[in-house]
């Protein structure tokens, strides 16, 4: 943390400009050594300065240099950003000069890590920085912006404040039992407080399911027998010829993937091999993979052929998905109907009639998906949720421990033991926003960031 780091903060390639970022106590001095223009050690903070980057007498590039002095910077350290022309060669040459003059190449995410360690942002806000960079939809952008602004952190802070209040009340009762004006904390008083805390955590977790959908999208598998139109459906949704389509059954041997956006939510579409009994070893492996994808999917689009009768193996698969989120798509409605719809043991509201060759039913399918996941509601709500698996898994553990406390109170466990359990949960909640943390966690988390951020 005492050395000065540098990295290229823009994507490498041909472009109008590139930005090389420097942060640390010696940032201004080091850049000043290779800069010909104003004396950067004497310029005002948050100014842009015109000049040239020099290697002794050789001009490397014409640049604009932004100088931002501590503590009003992203890392709270002195930061200098060199705006070079966007070619690969000049950008790399400027970086080399910085390294030669005393900078160290930053590790992935090290600028953001320093911002966290210096108290500029908390851990949820740090994770949101990368979410903002990765955002592909407007809804993802809004959710990342709320986390950066600290709105999501406030959810965790409120939970911890509630727990501090409970701990304080218990401590007063234990340490000062003679005070008449202190509320006596009995099981009857404590149980409603713990129950309220439990319900608050449950509500956050329920809403965080939406956050995970916004961030990661909906893993959607297209399942069915060979030649029912799975690849045609994928192509129709993507509006491109992503998957090979023929009249030959078993054409799709492996999964084919693509993405579409519905109301700002990504659907990660997976076209799978047709499910049937086969002696072909390669096709059989594809069928096995299809079944695995089906079991792991958030949404199953199960396709049936209007021109085929329902088989026993399809009935078994329909039974297998009944507890998951699914839609039944009956394709080829332009052909003679041989499918007995009354024999389908599924929710009839989840059936969509299709004719992909005639471009019928696609819009209805999208509407059904919106209804199933309440995507219209997600689009209109201000998305303030936990959105990453790390935070959600911690909160789930905390919920389980709160439920254990509730049970212990009902079994008359001593109050001082309850206090210790609540303190442990309070500390674990702190790992979500970084109020408490382990160095290994930071190293692992920030290693996923891009270099220069």
Describe the structure.
The chain is α/β, with parallel strands linked by helices. The chain folds into three domains: 5-122, Probable tRNA modification gtpase trme, domain 1 (Gyrase A, domain 2, 2-Layer Sandwich), CATH 3.30.1360.120; 138-213 and 386-437, tRNA modification GTPase MnmE domain 2 (Four Helix Bundle (Hemerythrin (Met), subunit A)); 223-379, P-loop containing nucleotide triphosphate hydrolases (Rossmann fold, 3-Layer(aba) Sandwich). 45% of the residues lie in helices and 18% in strands. The protein is built from 15 helices and 13 strands. Strands 3-4-5-6-2-1-7 form a seven-stranded mixed β-sheet, with helices on one face. The protein has a six-stranded mixed β-sheet with strand order 9-10-8-11-12-13, sandwiched between helices. Helix 4 runs antiparallel to helix 5 (138-148), helix 6 (151-175) packs antiparallel against helix 14 (415-433) and helix 13 (389-410) packs antiparallel against helix 14. The longest helix is centred in the middle third of the chain and has 30 residues, at 187-216. It is flat, with a radius of gyration of 29 Å.
Helices and strands, with pairings:
Elements: E1 5-8, E2 17-23, H1 27-33, E3 35-37, E4 47-55, E5 58-68, E6 79-85, H2 88-100, E7 104-105, H3 110-117, H4 123-134, H5 138-148, H6 151-175, H7 187-216, E8 218-224, H8 230-238, E9 256-262, E10 265-271, H9 281-296, E11 299-305, H10 312-320, E12 326-331, E13 351-353, H11 362-372, H12 375-380, H13 389-410, H14 415-433, H15 439-446
Parallel strand pairs: 1-7, 8-10, 8-11, 11-12, 12-13
Antiparallel strand pairs: 1-2, 2-6, 3-4, 4-5, 5-6, 9-10
Helix pairs in contact: 4-5, 6-7, 6-14, 7-13, 13-14
């Amino acid at each position: 943390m005492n050395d000065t780091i540098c990295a290229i903060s823009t994507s490498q390639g041909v472009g109008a400009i590139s930005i090389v970022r420097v942060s640390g106590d010696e940032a201004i001095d080091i850049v000043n050594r290779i800069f010909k223009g104003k004396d950067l050690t004497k310029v005002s903070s948050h100014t842009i300065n015109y000049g040239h980057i020099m290697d002794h007498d050789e001009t490397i590039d014409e640049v604009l240099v932004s100088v931002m002095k501590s503590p009003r910077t992203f890392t709270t350290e002195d930061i200098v950003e060199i705006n070079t022309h966007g070619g690969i060669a000049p950008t790399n040459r400027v970086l080399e000069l910085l390294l030669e003059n005393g900078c160290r190449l930053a590790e992935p995410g090290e600028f953001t890590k320093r911002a966290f360690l210096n108290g500029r942002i908390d851990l949820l806000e740090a994770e949101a920085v990368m979410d903002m960079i990765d955002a592909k939809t407007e809804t993802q952008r809004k959710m990342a912006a709320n986390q950066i602004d600290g709105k999501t952190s406030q959810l965790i802070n409120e939970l911890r404040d509630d727990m501090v209040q409970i701990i304080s009340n218990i401590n007063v009762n234990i340490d000062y039992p003679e005070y008449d004006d202190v509320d006596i904390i009995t099981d009857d008083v404590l149980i409603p407080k713990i129950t309220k805390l439990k319900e608050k955590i449950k509500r956050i977790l329920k809403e965080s399911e939406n956050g995970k959908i916004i961030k990661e999208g909906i893993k959607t598998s297209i399942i069915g027998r060979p030649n029912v139109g799975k690849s045609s459906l994928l192509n129709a949704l993507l509006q491109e010829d992503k998957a090979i389509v023929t009249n030959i059954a078993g054409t799709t041997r492996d999964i084919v993937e693509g993405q579409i956006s519905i109301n700002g939510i990504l659907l990660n579409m997976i076209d799978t091999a047709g499910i049937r009994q086969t002696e072909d070893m390669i096709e059989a492996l594809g069928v096995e993979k299809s079944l695995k994808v089906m079991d792991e999917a958030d949404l199953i689009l199960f396709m049936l052929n209007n021109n085929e009768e329902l088989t026993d193996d399809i009935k078994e698969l329909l039974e297998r998905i009944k507890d998951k989120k699914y839609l039944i798509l009956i394709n080829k409605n332009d052909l003679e109907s041989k499918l007995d719809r009354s024999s389908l043991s599924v929710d009839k509201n989840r059936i969509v009639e299709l004719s992909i060759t005639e471009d019928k039913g696609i819009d209805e399918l999208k509407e059904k998906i919106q209804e199933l996941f309440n995507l219209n509601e997600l689009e209109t709500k201000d998305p303030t949720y936990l959105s990453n698996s790390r935070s959600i898994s911690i909160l789930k553990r905390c919920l389980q421990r709160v439920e254990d406390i509730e049970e212990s109170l009902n079994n008359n466990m001593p109050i001082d033991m309850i206090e210790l359990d609540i303190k442990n949960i309070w500390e674990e909640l702190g790992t979500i926003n970084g109020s408490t943390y382990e160095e290994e966690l930071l190293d692992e988390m920030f290693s996923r960031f891009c270099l220069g951020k």
